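Predict structure. Chain length: 335.
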Amino acid sequence: MAPSGPGSVRRRCRRVLYWIPVVFISLLLGWSYYAYAIQLCIVSMENVGEQVVCLIAYHLLFAMFVWSYWKTIFTLPMNPSKEFHLSYAEKELLEREPRGEAHQEVLRRAAKDLPIYTRTMSGAIRYCDRCQLIKPDRCHHCSVCDKCILKMDHHCPWVNNCVGFSNYKFFLLFLAYSLLYCLFIAATDLQYFIKFWTNGLPDTQAKFHIMFLFFAAAMFSVSLSSLFGYHCWLVSKNKSTLEAFRSPVFRHGTDKNGFSLGFSKNMRQVFGDEKKYWLLPVFSSPENHQFPAKPLRESQSHLLTDSQSWTENSANPGKGKAGMSNPALTMENET
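Prediction complete.
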């Protein structure tokens, strides 16, 4: 076995450091459980009915918060399928051709049968030198993961993962349940927080947990409400954070609402057709979309409108146009 070099050691150190925000959130969550369930509900609340109601509601929110947070962290990002990777011959051609029109001609030939509508700012084919693939629409390279991520929104240090096609729903639910969790704690802790300042609480360690618990819940409620509201707006417009900062460029030019299908279908793009699963952190994209098989406009990619049609075309190559086979989304391999 070859000895580890300095670069390998640095990479391992970085991987450990990336988990620090997740550990911080986990420790904070563990302390909040102790402070609320034990010190506030069991030690400080005198009314049994209030204790029972608060503990039941608290544990429900706590469970949904932890579940959605776990799914956001450990759901692997989706990467482009092999269909978008260049063949060995195409890679050799690219290496021989200088940057410029000849280089783009090779990429155009490689992409002619792919369902790709977006371009670079200069109108060129979007190509990732690092992964050596033609980028599907809404796909971007993450410098932290060192991979191209489908429908990438951003890399979130608080979950040590890329937020994209495979876990964006879980990320939204994580924001929603963490916000509800903080609001619930702040609302039920408020009367005891006031008693702290009016000397209405017994002089025990519980009073300090109650004070800091209210401050933490109120502070996080403010920041989470703005972040959650922003992502709700993004969902309503079918945009990612990257697309909100830089509008996608299509064959016909820039279009800031190029992927929007209308409010209802935009919601279903993230949460799926089965509304009964919308509030649960489970993958709920339907097997059979009711969306049109082709995009409403040329700028709307097949990849995000009708995954079932790709599967059918792949199974029946005689049907449909050439090049419309399944660009099946593959899960990121663990390394």
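Summary: DSSP finds ten helices and eleven strands in the chain.
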